[in-house]
Design a protein that fits this description.
Elements lengths: L19 H12 L4 E2 L10 H13 L9 H21 L6 E4 L2 H23 L7 E2 L2 E2 L4 E5 L4 H12 L4 E5 L10 H7 L4 E5 L13 H14 L8 E5 L11 H4 L3 E5 L9 E5 L28 H40 L4 E3 L12 E6 L6 H7 L3 E2 L16 H5 L4 H4 L2 E5 L6 H24 L1
Parallel strand pairs: 1-13, 5-6, 5-7, 7-8, 8-9
Antiparallel strand pairs: 2-10, 3-4, 9-10, 11-12, 12-14
């Protein structure tokens, strides 16, 4: 494997000139370069090629992309190139890609669109008195179906709409056998006012893959059977964790919307939304009012350097996905075997192993069983391992195990011991050997301290 910009040992290039705070941070990094990072599901460092592309864009394409003179045209051309690269990565068309500030905005944009689309559909059908009869119900609310293991940028948005009385929602439980959503449950939950189904492509904590392609086929049949009085059911998947680890093709998935998050595949912290035929095949309603950028779907002067970096990260995925995925799977499998060798099968529970389900190639969610071995406690006693107990956005919930694991059927006492280990493109087997030994020593120290009290 080639060396990456931010390896498991945190080898970062010098980019500190002119910024005293960055100099201070680099000095801290130099002092802590023995740490081994295994939290790539939380975020990834930018590849060197991505950083170089961003730097070049700042120098050569600094103009406003809406301007007609050379610097503006350069910026516009670079944005068009990035749009094509991202479209190629997901199997779509360039015109289907809308740039956003990140995954949270993209997910919000989809949910906002679904609600607006529902009400526009209702107004189109409404007689003069404004009353709409939808399946025998007058003035119903838009209905959204999602799962109980979604990212907060989906779950909390839908939950908030329900609290405000702007929508109804069904939060479907996942199977505690397979760890994924059951398509039959999704279809059974569909009602006359259902306008959106939003299910992630891969879970960020367990790594379990959801059956999005099968779901889209079933939803397509339902849509075909629905009359003109009922809105089309739109299908969205948040692919944040899958991109850069798996082949993702929107044609195979059959979705209307797919969320792209740059910092999950060694790109910058911006995102994009794939929309199947914006405003033709699939509706899209802007959340912001402003200029005409992104065909008025997402107004605001484009962040050319970051968009260019996102395009470069996508280009690398297109070129090297097979290499990346193969390496990560090999190291992840080695990690699991090493953990079993050191701790024994009776002392471990792999929270990412579910019967009949596929998993991301880089994710190992594991609990070391026993008293006082809560995941956070074990990580606090580790000297070199940098990892987490679950999603970074839930890190403030320090006294409760991950709701994703609990909703996946993991017992409370097992879930509270969970550690999410996610390997990256440059993680080596030597790194695995080091962190497994680190975990072993941490557990021994905890048991020793407990015995002395």
């Amino acid at each position: 494997m080639e060396k990456h910009a931010y390896t498991a040992k945190m080898d970062v290039p010098s980019v500190t000139q002119g910024c005293p705070k960055l100099v201070e941070l680099q000095q801290k990094n130099n002092l802590s370069n023995e740490y081994i990072y295994m939290d790539y599901n939380a975020t990834t460092p930018m590849e060197r090629e991505v950083m170089q592309t961003i730097t070049d864009a700042m120098q050569e394409a600094w103009g406003n992309p809406s301007s007609s003179y050379a610097p503006g045209r350069n910026a516009k051309e670079l944005i068009d190139w990035a749009r094509e690269a991202i479209a190629q990565m997901v199997g779509g068309h360039p015109e289907d890609i809308i740039f956003t500030s990140g995954g949270t905005e993209a997910n919000n944009l989809v949910i906002h669109t679904a609600v607006k689309y529902f009400w526009d559909h209702q107004r189109h059908l409404a007689p003069k008195d404004g009353r709409v009869d939808l399946g025998g119900i007058v003035q119903v609310l838009p209905h959204i179906i999602t799962s109980n293991v979604e990212h907060d940028s989906v779950h909390l948005v839908v939950e908030n709409l329900v609290k405000e009385g702007k929508a109804k929602a069904t939060f479907l439980p996942i199977s505690k056998v397979t760890g994924c959503i059951q398509v039959d449950d999704v279809i059974a939950a569909i009602g006359p006012s259902t306008c959106l189904i939003s299910i992630m492509l891969a879970n960020n904590e367990t790594g379990v893959l959801m059956p999005i392609a099968e779901m889209s086929q079933r939803v397509k049949i339902v849509n075909h059977q629905r009359g003109k009085q009922t809105p089309k059911i739109l299908l969205h998947t948040d692919a944040a964790q899958a991109l850069g680890k798996l082949q993702v093709d929107v044609q195979d998935l059959g979705v209307d919307y797919l969320t792209v998050v740059g910092h999950k595949f060694y790109g910058p912290r911006i995102g994009a939304l794939y929309v199947r035929g914006p405003s033709t095949s699939s509706p899209i309603y802007a959340m912001f009012i402003g200029g005409g950028q992104e065909r008025k779907f997402r107004p605001g002067t484009e962040n050319t350097p970051m968009i260019a970096g996102l395009g470069k990260a996508a280009e690398l995925v297109v070129k090297k996905l097979e290499i990346y995925a193969s390496h990560m799977k090999e190291v992840r499998d080695y990690l699991e075997v090493s953990l079993l060798t050191v701790f024994g099968k009776e002392k471990l529970h792999f929270n990412s192993h579910f019967q009949g389900s596929d998993c991301l190639p880089n994710t190992c969610n594991v609990s070391i069983l026993g008293p006082n071995l809560q995941g956070r406690n074990v990580l606090l006693h580790c000297q070199r391992l940098l990892a987490s107990v679950g999603a970074a956005c839930h890190s403030e919930n320090v006294n409760r195990p991950s709701h994703v694991l609990l909703n996946s059927g993991i017992p409370y006492e097992v879930a509270e011991n969970a550690i999410r280990l996610s390997v990256g493109r440059a993680t080596s087997k030597e790194d695995v050997d080091t962190i497994v030994e680190d975990l072993k020593l941490a557990v021994q120290e905890i048991k020793l301290c407990a015995a002395q009290t």
